[in-house]
Automatic annotation (TrEMBL):
Gene Ontology CC annotation, any one: mitochondrion
Location of this chain's protein in the cell: Mitochondrion
Glutamate/phenylalanine/leucine/valine/L-tryptophan dehydrogenase C-terminal domain segment(s): 352-644
Keywords carried by this UniProt record: Mitochondrion, Oxidoreductase
InterPro entries: Aminoacid_DH-like_N_sf, Glu/Leu/Phe/Val/Trp_DH, Glu/Leu/Phe/Val/Trp_DH_C, Glu/Leu/Phe/Val/Trp_DH_dimer, NAD(P)-bd_dom_sf, NAD_bind_Glu_DH
Taxonomic path: Eukaryota, Metazoa, Spiralia, Lophotrochozoa, Mollusca
EC number: 1.4.1.3
Name used for this protein in its record: glutamate dehydrogenase [NAD(P)(+)]
Similarity-based family: Belongs to the Glu/Leu/Phe/Val dehydrogenases family.
Organism per entry: Elysia marginata
UniProt keyword Lipid metabolism present: no
Catalytic activity field: L-glutamate + NADP(+) + H2O = 2-oxoglutarate + NH4(+) + NADPH + H(+); L-glutamate + NAD(+) + H2O = 2-oxoglutarate + NH4(+) + NADH + H(+)
Gene3D superfamilies reported in the protein's UniProt record: 1.10.287.140, Leucine Dehydrogenase, chain A, domain 1, NAD(P)-binding Rossmann-like Domain
GO terms for MF: glutamate dehydrogenase (NAD+) activity
Broad enzyme group: oxidoreductase
């Protein structure tokens, strides 16, 4: 072995002087290993252990496999073959981090020549943790860059839950007649809140698929059902190489709160498949998706009345179509509602018009509500309305593109776009439609002729009025938030702002429109699609003509009434004609997309009104996130109290 594969989670531990035992076995023990705490999960973790010896001629390393269960000793056979290790390798490993450790003992190399072999002053144990099931509980809340998403969501939940508990207790004290003592009521309140927070069910799947080159590959996937107090559970399926247990459970919890906020009668769920979809062919992705559907159905994690997935990062209409087809033909062939097992399908397969742009449309509607609230704009120092407003969008996917398109149509100017392959900037404005067309033709954003590559440190910190964070989780940390110049941040993605950053932004009087509200457009329209599949009829089919004829009759009636009260000369030639815009909107046939978008806007506006009323009731100021969590948690809490905690999950 001439080198070690470096992974970011490595730790160096000094060992005590060696003692030689029988059979030429060198035994090293160290109290430092007892300070190493691995993340929760299985009792043991697969590791690679490396030993460097002082008496070796040029700093040799031994490699062997072992299972470490917080042990305080390590045994190695001295007869193994050794090979040199570059000093830069050990130095790099010494500066790496392990999630979950309570102390790091670093090795600093005194030599200037980084290519010389390392002479260790004593035995050195290098432990590389190869598999982490969940994030460590030992990470400080201040380290928000590495804080697990579940901890972020939990911190936001706890803050709102504490306010709700205080309110419920005060309401109980004011009751004229009490059926239980205050202590009993407190236990019931706190117990109910404790039931809401954790994830109820999660399944971990491993299944093989055959690649195009004939090799077999094992795919890892998760599906979490956070709550089933209302059925079915609802949440997307994401394909990402970085998805894990923690992320899936956190996103499932967000779905529960999101559904409660917009009055969608679902519990929260989320699924993740640990693959990079860009590295698989279409045929391979189809095999993965169809096999995933079968495995989920075996465990009861997909059904029109139990668990209904939807698109998410790395998936779209194509994957949802495969899921619906697999379920309908293999599992639900005798179920007339089988196509309702998933939403986000193509319209030809039972989907709904307006679903593709739904989340982006919801982001726009949410921004519009707050941007037209004069009292709110006075606090952050902006004039109401979209006129002369500039914005930057991070993540030019489905959500970011449609949000940018609607914002530009309303009068705002897009001055920046941040993506993985390019950061674009143009103070005179970027046309989202032209940029999307360029991406479709070239496959990337880099090289777009109507904008320049951003030359600054971080485009998110560039001066603008609105920042649409529609990429991924934990992108706006406490450190970055101190440089943010935007007045409004819309969380188009799930969890882009960390708790530490959220606090800093509130102190700077930046309005953060939270994820569980602003990106709820997707699940709202998914609810409409689910209802369409259960009703087996498209929206507007039964009512559009009737409503059009009714509006025409109203105009004719008004015209006749005016003619009746006017003399014949003045009434001659009178012909009431509606404005062209009114005619197109109300005297034409309402399309399914018109009805869907109207329902989406109504849902988002009602939710925003309730959030603002709650913020005023609790005197929360710009803390819209806590107000949104309060609304959601209170709805779920009331459901449990009325239904009985033990009867629901």
């Amino acid at each position: 072995m001439t080198g070690i594969k470096i992974v970011p989670n490595a730790v160096l531990l000094w060992l005590k002087p060696a003692t030689k035992t029988k059979d030429s076995v060198l035994k090293y023990s160290s109290t430092l290993t007892s300070n190493l705490t691995f993340s929760s999960g299985p009792a043991s973790f697969r590791t690679l252990v490396h030993l460097c010896y002082r008496n070796a001629p040029s700093g040799f390393v031994a490699n062997c496999s072992s299972h470490i269960q917080r042990s305080a000793s390590f045994t190695h056979d001295a007869a193994q073959t050794f090979s040199p290790i570059p000093r830069r390798t050990v130095t790099a490993m010494s500066r790496a981090k392990v999630r979950g450790q309570t102390s790091i003992h670093r090795w600093y190399c005194p030599y200037k020549d980084w290519d010389r072999p390392l002479y260790c002053p004593g035995p050195l144990l290098v432990v590389q943790q190869r598999h982490i099931v969940s994030k460590s509980a030992h990470i400080s809340d201040d380290d928000d860059e590495n804080l697990p998403l579940s901890r972020n969501v939990g911190m936001f939940f706890d803050k709102a839950a504490a306010l709700l508990v205080h309110k419920v207790v005060e309401d109980f004290k004011s009751l004229p007649q009490k059926h239980r003592s205050l202590d009993e009521e407190m236990k019931l309140i706190q117990g109910t809140i404790a039931v809401i927070k954790p994830c109820a069910f999660i399944i971990s799947l491993s299944f093989p698929i055959r690649r195009d080159n004939g090799t077999l590959e094992v795919v890892r996937a998760y599906r979490a059902q956070h709550k089933q107090h209302r059925l079915p559970s609802k949440g997307g399926i994401r394909f990402s190489a970085h998805v894990d247990y923690d992320e899936v459970t956190a996103l499932a919890a967000l779905m529960t709160y999101k559904c409660a906020l917009v009055n969608a009668p679902f519990g929260g769920a989320k699924a993740g498949v640990q693959i990079d979809p860009k590295k698989y062919s279409e045929g391979e992705l189809e095999r993965i998706t169809r096999r995933l559907t079968i495995e989920l159905s075996k465990k009861g994690f997909i059904h029109p009345g139990i668990d209904v997935p939807a698109p998410d990062m790395g998936t779209g209409e194509r994957e949802m179509c495969w899921i619906a087809d697999t379920y309908a033909n293999i599992v639900g062939f005798s179920d007339i509602n089988a196509r309702a097992c998933v939403t986000g399908k193509p319209v030809s397969q039972g989907g709904i018009n307006g679903r593709t742009s739904a989340t982006g449309k919801g982001v726009f509607v949410g921004i519009k509500y707050f941007l037209t609230d004069k009292a709110c704009m006075d606090v952050i120092g902006l004039k109401p309305g979209f006129k002369d407003k500039t914005f930057i969008v991070q993540g030019f996917g489905n959500v970011g593109f449609h949000a940018a398109r609607y914002l530009v149509e309303a009068g705002a100017k897009c001055i920046g776009v941040a993506e993985m392959d390019a950061n674009l900037y143009n103070k005179d404005g970027i046309d989202p439609v032209a940029l999307d067309e360029y991406r479709r033709q070239s496959g990337c954003l880099a090289g777009f002729p109507a904008a320049q590559p951003y030359q600054g440190e971080n485009i998110l910190c560039e001066k603008c009025d609105i920042l649409v964070a529609a990429a991924c989780e934990r992108v706006i940390t406490k450190k970055i938030s101190q440089k943010i110049q935007a007045k409004i941040i819309a969380e188009g993605a799930n969890g882009p702002v960390t708790p530490g950053a959220d606090k800093v932004l509130m102190e700077k009087k930046v309005l953060v429109i939270p994820d569980l509200f602003i990106n709820a457009g997707g699940v709202t329209v998914s609810y409409f699609e689910w209802l369409k599949n259960l009703n087996h009829v498209s929206y507007g089919r039964l009512t559009s003509k009737f409503e059009r004829d009714s509006n025409l009759h109203i105009i004719e009636s008004v015209e006749k009434s005016i003619n009746k009260w006017l003399d014949s000369d003045r009434a001659k030639g009178l012909n009431l004609k509606p404005d062209p815009k009114v005619k197109d909107k109300y005297l034409g046939y309402a399309s399914e997309k018109d009805i869907v978008h109207a329902g989406l806007e109504h849902t988002m506006e009602r939710a925003a009104e309730v959030i603002m009323d709650t913020a005023r009731t609790y005197n929360l100021g710009l803390d819209i996130r806590t107000a949104a969590y309060l609304v959601s948690i209170e709805k779920i809490y009331n459901f449990y109290r009325e239904a009985g905690v033990s009867s629901v999950i």
